[in-house]
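yo, Histidine phosphatase family protein is done. seq:
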Amino acid sequence: MATLILVRHGRSTANTSGVLAGRTPGIALDERGAAQAAALPARLADVPLAAAVSSPLQRCRETLRPLLDARPDLPLHVEDRINECDYGDWSGRKLAELNDEPLMEVVQAHASAAAFPGGESMRAMQNRAVEAVRDWNARIEAEHGEDACYVMCSHGDIVKSLVADALGLHLDLFQRLHVDPCSVTVIRYTRLRPFLLRLGDTGDFAGFAPRERPGDAGAAEVGGGAGAP
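structure:
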């Protein structure tokens, strides 16, 4: 079947301000996120792509824009089922204050039981994303052959939930995974099982250096999603 190249959107203004953006409109890439997106075409230059699929949110469209500009013949499809998790009443709130919510412990340790007030459950989020990928795999293979590759730009919790599904990992363990902004994750699907070929690849190892403590300059940057470390 097809090979899926999953891209988490570049760093956004919500990531740097420590806000759980969810589906809040108008969340754009920040300066660093725009630079990450600009580097994406070169990172994928050797990969023939059959299609690009995007979450409907602005930050994902902005992440794919340089790639689409570099490949004017690459078709773009918007897929609602890979939209960000609907965090409901949590959307737009600071992650620092959400850490005091009793539900956050459930999100971290028992995600399959977590449902956001006024939003959706994490289980429903994973189910719709997996369904979307299965449908796109079949479509890409039917139109371009079983060796075809396509790129899909989505959000941190969506990417992690898709990786968990590919690995046969229970959703309760998916918070053990981490994908940085504009990282590339690659899953090759076959008739019998998927293979995880890359996970959160940015080509940048600076992120493994010790992080600044809370209160230090730059400490407000957050990876994103309700499970951000």
